[in-house]
Every structure is written in C-alpha cells, then in structure tokens.
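Board notes (copied after class):
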Amino acid sequence: MIRESCVLLFGLAARLIAADLPTAQKLPAVAVRGVSVEMVRIPAGEFLMGADNEGERPRHQVKVRSFDMATTEVTVGQFRAFTQATGYKTEAEKENWGFVCCWSKPGDAGWRSRGYWKKEEGATWRNPGFPQSDADPVILLSWQDAAEFCKWLATETGQQFRLPSEAEWEYAARAGSEADLQAGADTYGWSRENSELRTHPVALKKPNAWGLFDTAGNAWEWVADVWTRDYEGAPTDGSARMDGGSSHPQIAPGDGRILRGGGWGLERATLRFADRSPFGSHQRCNNSGFRIARSIQ
C-alpha cells in the first residue's frame, strides 16, 4: 500500500513538472549547399547549473534567454558540405594526426577499466578509426574547426550561428530536469557500454523533452566558453565566459575549452548534465564533435 502510494505521488509530481515545463518550438530547417539542419527554439528560463563535484561547483542560478539549437550534432555530411564549399582543412588534416580513444571490450584479454587517448598519425574526421555514414556525428574536430564551421554557416545564411555557451548547453540538455544523470541513459545516448566502440547515426535514440537528440553521448560537444576550474565569477545570464581561463597541466590559461555531454567511448557515468571536460582549443579526438546554436535576431 505504501509502495503504491509512493508510485502515485511520484507519477503525479512528474506530470506536474511536465505541465509546468515550457515547450520548445520546432523551426523550419536551415538548408545550405544541399544539406539541411533541423532547429528548435529553446524557451527562456532559469535553472540551477552545476553539481557538487570538483570542477562543477558552486551550483548557481542562471537565467537563459531564448535561443535556437540544432536538434542533432553536426553530421559528417553537413561538415563535408562546408569543406567542399570552402576547401577548409581541419587542424588534424593539416598536421596529419589526431587523438583516438582506445578501449578493449569488457572481458577481452588486457581489458582496461578506463579508456585512454593515443596520438595516431593519419587520424582525421575522414578517417576516425571506424566506418561512418554521412548521418554520423562528425568527430576529430578541434574547437577551432567547430568555430570555423559556425562562421561559414553564418556567412552563408546571414543568421547568427555560433557554438552554444556552456550554460545554454546544460540548460537545453536538462530540458527542465533537476537530476544529475539522464534517466535511462541507454535510451537517450551512446556510451562505451552500448556503442560497440563507435559513433552511430544521429537521432536514433530518444530525444529529450525539448526535441534534442544525443545530448547524452555519441559525440562530445564543444561549447563556446574558455575553461575555468570552477564557476566562481561565471556569468549568470546564460552568456559564454570568454575572458580569463584557468591553467591545466596540459593546457595554457585561456586556451582551454570545454567538451560537454560525454561520448561513444566514455563510461555511461559521464553522460551527466553537469559533466565538463577541458581540452586545448587545438586538440582533437575521435570523440569530439559539436552542436550549433543560433541567436534570435
């Protein structure tokens, strides 16, 4: 009887939260150079950002203005349209190397409890270490590569495309959730435990409440902000922190950028809303991709 009452109460609470959650508006797709990008308008709101873990505190209230966000990570096909139109070469292509995520499957001889990255010659978005379709998220991109794609798309369309701020990304990924980890992570995302150690076409998993796919896993996603070791002094208006930056053993102050959302080669436990990882702006691995945002004009 007690258990049944608790289930009813939790069900009622979930329905009340869902009823209070503002909805995201589906927008016309952006068509450019033979490819299209599906977008939704994320409603304005306020949320509690961060967690009580090192690098994710202090938790703080953030107000976010409405903005537009792509429903999926940028795909191989979309990025190829950019390179064909501009002749752009990624940093991995220019230097002919990238980092690849290495895992042995659980149960295999030599299995490691955690993954590691290895510098590999010839690793680029065209050769990430496993086959990809045009619908897979593009990977092995640096923050600089992602920023150049946004600049090109803004020029092509006359619209204000950019990388999302760290606050915008977390707000959109949570879509009203106050939990630390997406419930039913395997339903929403690809991680080491279910990915077969490779990316998968975007939008195969269930979207979140605002229609965003793969915010949990598949490709790690670059955001606009510089890396800081905590949220002391962070903007509370949803904008990106672009000045300053903290030092890191492998990253110079101000050069660190942030990856969000976990990836195909990382443990399920990293598919947390508040999880944030520092990389240099020129670093690239076959976990790292990005998702685009657009300011409302």
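Comment from the instructor: Residues 1-18 have pLDDT under 50 and may be disordered. The first strand starts at residue 25 and ends at 32.
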